[in-house]
Amino acid sequence: xxxxxxxxxxxxxxxxxxxxxxxxxxxxxxxxxxxxxxxxxxxxxxxxxxxxxxxxxxxxxxxxxxxxxxxxxxxxxxxxxxxxxxxxxxxxxxxxxxxxxxxxxxxxxxxxxxxxxxxxxxxxxxxxxxxxxxxxxxxxxxxxxxxxxxxxxxxxxxxxxxxxxxxxxxxxxxxxxxxxxxxxxxxxxxxxxxxxxxxxxxxxxxxxxxxxxxxxxxxxxxxxxxxxxxxxxxxxxxxxxxxx
Amino acid sequence: xxxxxxxxxxxxxxxxxxxxxxxxxxxxxxxxxxxxxxxxxxxxxxxxxxxxxxxxxxxxxxxxxxxxxxxxxxxxxxxxxxxxxxxxxxxxxxxxxxxxxxxxxxxxxxxxxxxxxxxxxxxxxxxxxxxxxxxxxxxxxxxxxxxxxxxxxxxxxxxxxxxxxxxxxxxxxxxxxxxxxxxxxxxxxxxxxxxxxxxxxxxxxxxxxxxxxxxxxxxxxxxxxxxxxxxxxxxxxxxxxxxxxxxxxxxxxxxxxxxxxxxxxxxxxxxxxxxxxxxxxxxxxxxxxxxxxxxxxxxxxxxxxxxxxxxxxxxxxxxxxxxxxxxxxxxxxxxxxxxxxxx
Lengths: 244, 343
Known about the structure:
heterodimer, A: alpha/beta, Rossmann fold, 2 domains, six-stranded mixed sheet, four-stranded antiparallel sheet, 9 helices, 25% strand, globular, B: mainly alpha, 76% helix
């Protein structure tokens, strides 16, 4: 289990996260939602060691990872993607995916095998020899997720994985993501503003506003929560898109 | 090693062997000297490519490690009977030593790598401008030591008496070995991870890459190659002073790599060939202009100015250099498969 307990992050006196607590089990998909500036990306940054904690702790399977560097946290099975796609643009697609395996300690042969398997799964075999810079935005996003999966993470944190994708690409991505927990036994945390995707995909939701948790629980109860409607979803709770 | 890398290796090593054969058959002394020097430069440029090309950090310190290699082999290989004159204050421990040039060259590489291993680790945590400035500062430190450690370097004065051991064959052999070394490193696990950190350090670290350690490994290997190159050069030129390992030499080696393309081994080799050809042609032109007295004043610095302009031109028009991303083997195979696809 990935446990985030009472985590606070402060930037130059501003409390970006204030005592946030959440838990993510293996095999579960948790949606992290909230208006812009609510602290979603900061929470992922805090979990993965990209920003220091002002308080609280983070544990993976009982082991504290708070205070470790990002590479050490990654090697303990917590892998993330970024809000703005960060592909290795001068490496080929195959090499990009191999990096996910190599960075966590795999040898080249094993990394090549994992890359071949993931490229087939993501329908990217024909682009294997192309450079990252030569891909469309949607393909870049898919390669980024394949690269993260090559690390065989226990917990995968995806920051707006469908951002910039068209409806078709978004639907294809949803299918892949929905199958991940069962196929790979990993815990998936997803930040996204695409409420249609979040509502169809997630088992549970965690809602942040101004750095604090305002609601958490199963999808149905959270989407009907008055505090969430007021802060994020708007009065048309049935609408697909958020207000924020 | 896959087909594209094997083909790259074949083309690059083949070009070295062809050049060596041409120099051997032509038997023109000046041409043999130019080609021998080119092969030594190739070892140095490939060494720089190992670090700069894969880590994406410009290293001025490289030429400093060339100096470490040159002085190491000098101390170990100058004949004992000459050491009293060349290095009168040399420490007794090494004053009586007289190794073969081959051992001296190897020691030059190892000592340079050892110095790099000790000093570099804290520096490898830095990125971007901070890393470049720090490595420039390291060059200044190494140069100052060479200038003032008179017992070992003869201070700012010329050190002489090294046996002339580097000929066309030895230089060509070193260049032939340097190509697969650089290529294998680039394609190794460390090389691939390092290249990912060059493209995006934050993303590489988020996947588990220990970037400072990766950079350190490349830096030590690059210093080893610089030390070997420096020692080869020392046994080619046989007398030198610390100023041979400073800004002017740094500029030439950097120009070779930047013009060719730091991201590829092919670029490093092509850049060395092109800049050597340009350098020697311009030097001949400069000498001819002065002999013919076409201008009232002597023409000086033509080679440096043209080289600098060429570097600016390449950086503006092709920031990745002439061979930016794909090795020659990859390029040839892709071209062939595209031709095969064509109706």
